[in-house]
Amino acid sequence: MTVRRQQPEQTRPGDDDQARRPSKGDLTAQAILDTAERLLAKRSLRDIAIDELTAGAGVSRSTFYFHFESREAVLYALSERVLREIYAGGVVWFRRSDETPSTAVRRALTETVALWRRHGPVLRASVRGRETDVHLAELWDQVARRFMRSTAVQIESERRAGLAIAGPPSAKTLARVLVLMNETTCYHQSMAKRSAKWDADIVDTLAEIWLRTIYGPGVE
Fold first, then answer.
1. 83 Cβ partners below 8 Å, 6+ apart?
2. What is the pLDDT of residue 35?
3. In whole numbers, what is the pLDDT of the chain averaged over residues?
4. Is the alpha carbon torsion for 103, 106, 109, 115 positive or negative?
5. pLDDT of residue 97
6. 119-174 pLDDT, tens per residue?
7. Neighbours of 51 (CB within 10 A)
């Protein structure tokens, strides 16, 4: 599967303002992605026609195929972008410095739940699609492994510092369970009726599990 991209134009010294602006190709690809995300909120990827994507983005079929080779490639690009955002949100805990564990974990989980709310249709379509699409399966596997590896490293670091309770379980096993728990919980939460209170309750519950299993009761 190929997600086609135009090569960026060469810039000259002094062209900084123009270099920061999205190119016409970037805006076109973004319009296609935005259209796909809107349509995924209403029906599945297999029920979305290429003509609907081109009409919504205001482009021709040839222009669509210049950027993406298929609907699946569009979903892959959307998934890659959102999963990158989710990982960036988790970095809050991975790189915490003067924040308490409780503050960092809750902030990371709040961002994760919010992103699943905001991009739920894309993420759910991607989760379903990875069962049959090897490229999506590889993407999710790479992101999950990265999350689990970073989480395990952080747990081990907190244990060495005397902040986290010692195993068992091993840091790797605990990280795997916690990361998979987040994905499953957020997947189902994203389908529930929007409720700030319910989302806050989910964050509180997930945070309590993370904090108790890593740091023990009474962690700040």
1. 139, 140, 143
2. 98
3. 91
4. negative
5. 81
6. 999 999 999 999 999 999 999 999 999 999 999 999 999 999 999 999 889 999 99
7. 10
pLDDT of residue 173: 97
Sign of CA dihedral 10, 16, 18, 19: positive
Question: What six digits make up the tokens of 154?
Answer: 């952080």
Q: What type of residue sits at position 190?
A: S
Q: Quick check: bond before 168 cis, omega within 30? A: yes
Closest CA to 125 of 68, 81, 79: 79
Do residues 150 and 94 make contact, with C-beta atoms less than 8 angstroms apart? yes
In order of their start, the domains of the chain are 16-67 (1.10.10.60), 78-215 (1.10.357.10)
In the numeric block, the tokens 């060495």 are attached to 160
> Token pair for residue 64?
């669509």
Give the separation between CA 94 and CA 111, rounded to whole angstroms: 14
